[in-house]
Model the fold of this input.
Amino acid sequence: MTMDHEQAFVTLATNDSYAKGAMVLGKSLRNHKTSKKLVVLIGPHVSDQSSSVLHKIYDEVKLVDVMDSGDTAHLAMMKRPDLGVTFTKLHCWTLTHYSKCVFMDADTLVLSNIDELFDREELSAAPDPGWPDCFNSGVFVFRPSNETYGKLLQYCTVHGSFDGGDQGVLNGFFCDWSTTDITKHLPFIYNMSSIAIYTYLPAFKQYGANAKVVHFLGQRKPWSYTYDPKQRRVRGEIQDATPHPSFLVDWWILYSSEVVPLLLRAYGDLPFHSGCEEGVAQHALSSMTSEERKQKWEQGQADYMGMDSFDNIQKKLDVFLK
Done:
């Protein structure tokens, strides 16, 4: 039996937006009591503040910069500059101090303990909702190996990616997934696309309650919206193809309650946009005395997004003028 410390959940954050996703994912794994290590690969565009928060949530934060590495990845990159983020993701195979890992995209959210995924073999993944003969690369089980890493890079350089991203590369490389071994087909509840809910609503009603991982596929990510913590309402143009509202709210509840306080601490006096309307940022500021607040105003550091927003000042004025 392999030891838990030799196994890890791995994710990737290429910028501060995806870092927010990684923070929520890490918290959701911890809250559901995973016994595995948590690893996040970060790109060079992730800020020091985001990095310091990730260090509080993850056991290992590893900077991967394909552009700077003098290894085979760099050579591959020269030939295929279009696959930059893909090469960064493939770095997960270099985590050879772990015997087995589960990769999860930063736009996933864990709804219950999923440690049983480590009973599966490489390469296990769930079918893609758009083309079920392909697996979706948002959640997959793999075995770190420098040999596999080298072969993947070589494959990339020669064949490229049929969809321009890592999913095309991985499906090309692990091309027998759809036909060979059904135990490598993860049930859809381990990578339930928020878009698929709408395309087959009866199935969602039948099986959705068992979902263990929700994946916010599509252009708009949870962090692209804004959130009103008081009313627990997500705002933004919610169209048909948007994530099932309750999962989106679940993401925001976790982000606003457990991640934003860490971010506010990391940013200190620097401006930081949390995406939360009033609410959270306000709680952090309402502990300020009126004297401290007056000083902030005089130094030109009014909290324009929260307590001192135009709407709030207008409300105050309305009360006085009435």
Q: What stands out?
A: The longest strand covers residues 135-142.
